[in-house]
Structure formats: C-alpha cells, structure tokens
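[retry 2/3] ATPase AAA-type core domain-containing protein: previous attempt timed out, resubmitting with same input.
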Amino acid sequence: MLLRFTVENLFCFAEETVFSMVATKDEQHPEHAQLLRDGYPHKALSIAALYGANAHGKTKLVKAISFARKLILEGRKPGQSIPVEPFRLDEEKRGQPSRCEFVIFHENVEYTYGFLATTKRIVEEWLFARPSDKEECYFERVTDTEGKTQVSLGIAFQGIKEDKFIEYVARGTRENQLFLTKAMDDNVSVVKPVYEWFSHILTVVSTDTEIQPIALRAIEANFVEFMSCFLRLADTGIDSIITEEENLDYERFFPDTNDAVRNDVENDLAKGMAIGILNSDGLAMAIRPSENGHMLVRLKTLHRDKHGVCVPFDIEEESAGTQRVMQILPILADLKASKGVFIIDELDRKLHPLLSRLFIETYLEMGKGQNCQLIFTTHETSLLNLDLLRRDEIWFVEKDRKGASQVYSLADFDFKPNSDVKLELGYLHGRFGGIPFIGDIRSLGWIDD
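[retry 2/3] ATPase AAA-type core domain-containing protein: success.
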C-alpha cells in the first residue's frame, strides 16, 4: 500500500509536495480506510481522485512516480545521465537536486525509501523500515561531487552471512546508480521486499499505455468471461467476447517482421511465455506456445443482428470508449487475487460519465478488504460526490503565481456541503482551486465588441 509520496524540485513541483493516502478522521465511508496491522497508527485509503486544470500538474505527479519507479527497476548504464528535470522557473532550483520519497506498507512492514538526484549522480539515498513501533535504518547513501559513493549500512544488514559481500556491493555502486537497484541486481535479499513492491505491486498507467495487453489476457477463460459480463452491463452492445486460435504462420500474419524480432518472439515462446504483438494491420494478438506449435490468439467481440445471430468484430472496430474500458478491466478482474496499487492518468478518458462511475463503484465493491489502491487523475466532476468518495480521497492540483504546482485535498477545507451538487458546483466555481481561469475571448481579436 502507498501511504505517502513526496516530490520536490522535479518537473513543475518546486517545493516539497506531499500526496497522502493515509486516512484522516473523516467518518464517511469507513470501509474505504483499510486497517494495515494491529496496533499500527494509520489506515490506508483504497482510492483517490486528482482534479485540476490542464497543465497544472496532475499528469506531472503521475510522471514523477513513474520516473522514480523506472529509475529503480531499470537503473542507468555507466556514463548515462539521469532523466531528472528540476523546476525551471526558479534559477536557484535549476542547479539543485530533485527529490522523491515513498512511504509504503508492504508485507506487514512500513518502509520509507527515497533519493536526491541530479542528471549526473544520486546525491543521497535512504531506506528505513518500521517492522514494529521502532524505526530502523537499513541504509543511507551519499555520493560526493567527485562521484565517490559511501553507503552506511544499518541494523538490518548486521549479522547476515553476506555482510562482507554487501560492503563490496556498496563500494561498487556507480554515482548514477541507485544502491537499491545495485543491491537487487546482486541478489541482496534484505532489499527484496521494497524492490518487489515497485516491480510487482505498483503499476503506473499513462495516457498512451495499457495496464496489460488485452490480447495476452485472451488466453485466460475467466478473464474473457468477466470482460463479457462487464461489457454487457455497460451497455456497449457487445453480447460476449470470444477467442479464435490457429497455428501461427509468420509470413501470413507478420510479413514485415524482421528476423531479430522473430528470434526474440521464438526465444520467449521457448521459455513457455505468451507474448502480445501487433500484426501488419495493427491488430492486437497474442502468441502462446502449445504442444502443436505456436498458436495465434485473437479476441473478437460478438454483436447480435436483428435476427439474434451473433456477428463477430475485431476489437479494433469497437469504439474508442469501449476499447478504453477493456484496457482498464484487468484492474477489476484481478482484485480478488491482487494487492496492487494502480495509478492511472486520465482514467475517464473517452468514457461516458456514467461508465466512469460504474467502474469506480465496481472497484469499491469488489475491492473491499483487498488491500488494493486506485489513484487516478480526472476531469469528470460528476465523481465529486460524497456518496461515492470521502473528503480525504478528493485531491486538487493547482499552480501558483510562480508556476509551481501544489497538491491538497478536500479535507483541508472547512466545507460541509448540503448536497453533492453544491460540491461539484463549488469546484467548478473555483472554491477549491484546481480550475482554469478563462480569459475574455474578445481579447483574441476574432470577435467584434
């Protein structure tokens, strides 16, 4: 579970900015506040919606989390720069390091992990843990201006068999490399839970990516059935989803695929992996290994004609909104088996307001007690509804006069609406910020006075 994310001097965030998923004392929807451990002082929220005007920083907050995750999981090659972007509208900030810090709760332990980075080096890095009431230091790392890295190991590393090896790993950490990443690459088990939270629990979805290629999920009968049911419920006109399989013919379906790509595909299949791929017509497909060779799997939607006969369509023939629903459905389908943290930019993109609400309501119902989280940016004001969300689950992002973004929640306001219509209107009228202040269109000179 994500408890807090702090960002400073990165993208449009100049000063320390904190986004929190820790529940306040708000008494609404107590089922949204999840107990993490007996005696633990905090509860974690299961959902959060981020509102704000265009270009005010919603996407940049998602991008900051994605940047940190990618740096942790992929690392940097020797001599490669770190893609940090300090706040550019303040001359002093441009030369200062950027900061990211996560407070997470994973496997019954609270972890605090963060780093300071410039384009050249990781200036500082730290990991603390709170397995009980007392916080313990796992490591603290400092890299000087000459690129020399020093890592101070805490109590968690004392007395384990690999302690000398870990010291060697610490000395071998490059200035542009996170010690967390280096330690995981070298199989240092102590840091594994934190690394795996970023790799297996946290999923960040931008506007141009999918949570998981739908074609890959086509090989799972339970997922196909779930998707069929939801799409019927959402009144998309789809009766059901089916899969079609046939033996793979590379020359027929992928005539433009070069030998290198084909070799990569065959190597993955040889390992028993299924893969997603686009054919030359841009159609999403999956390839899976079988006893009879490689099988090509395609998803089809079925619509009924006026005689009640099912007619198949390619997924790509469905509306953009229907395809968007299918892209985000893995979140719902995996709730019972997953403890994922999903962060989605523009969840409501291409969706009807009622469909957005259906998705949120389904998530909240299916996710009860599952220790999962959904954090999303949106412009859909109909979700500003206290029958749906708590005050501490509604967040706003707004830029100040210096061009720096601020993040704050509805719980920061002394606001007790008589109705949710007033909450929505209050936002649109600027009571909570996070909206564009539109100028006079006549200033464009296109309209006569």
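[retry 2/3] ATPase AAA-type core domain-containing protein: The chain has two domains: 1-207+345-449, 214-326.
[retry 2/3] clearing retry counter.
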